[in-house]
Design brief:
The chain has 3 helices and 2 strands, in the order ααββα. By secondary structure, it is mostly helical. The chain folds into 2 domains: about 60 residues, Helix Hairpins (Orthogonal Bundle); about 40 residues, 30s Ribosomal Protein S14, Chain N. It has a two-stranded antiparallel ribbon. The chain is elongated, with a radius of gyration of 20 Å. InterPro entries: Ribosomal_uS14, Ribosomal_uS14_bac/plastid, Ribosomal_uS14_CS. GO terms for molecular function: rRNA binding; structural constituent of ribosome. Belongs to the universal ribosomal protein uS14 family.
């Protein structure tokens, strides 16, 4: 199991991303629009940099839903390799068969 504080910190980041998503997108559109005047784009860039760092989507870490493990994460299942193996061995994931040769 991962530290509870790490998992909670990641959850707080997810909430911040959801909260600031619209504002961040609007500012990014202004910054990237070449037809706008340079000073307007610069002001938008300053406002964007004034937003909390944890409101950026790239700050979110993919973690296992079961254990909170940050590495060896399968995006499609939202599980780590270890949790996937345990649940698969218990027969709790439909269609997953343990291979043997």
């Amino acid at each position: 199991m991962a530290k509870t504080s790490s998992v909670e910190k990641n959850n707080r980041r997810r909430k911040l991303v959801d909260q600031f998503a619209a504002k961040r997108k609007a500012l990014k559109d202004i910054v990237m629009d070449q037809s706008k005047p340079m000073d307007e784009r610069f002001r938008a860039q300053l406002k964007l940099s004034a937003l909390p760092r944890n409101s950026a989507k790239s700050r979110i870490r993919n973690r296992c839903e079961v254990t909170g493990r940050p590495r060896a994460f399968y995006r499609k299942l939202k599980l780590s390799r270890i949790a996937l193996r345990d649940l698969g061995n218990n027969g709790q994931i439909p269609g997953l068969v343990k291979s043997s040769w």
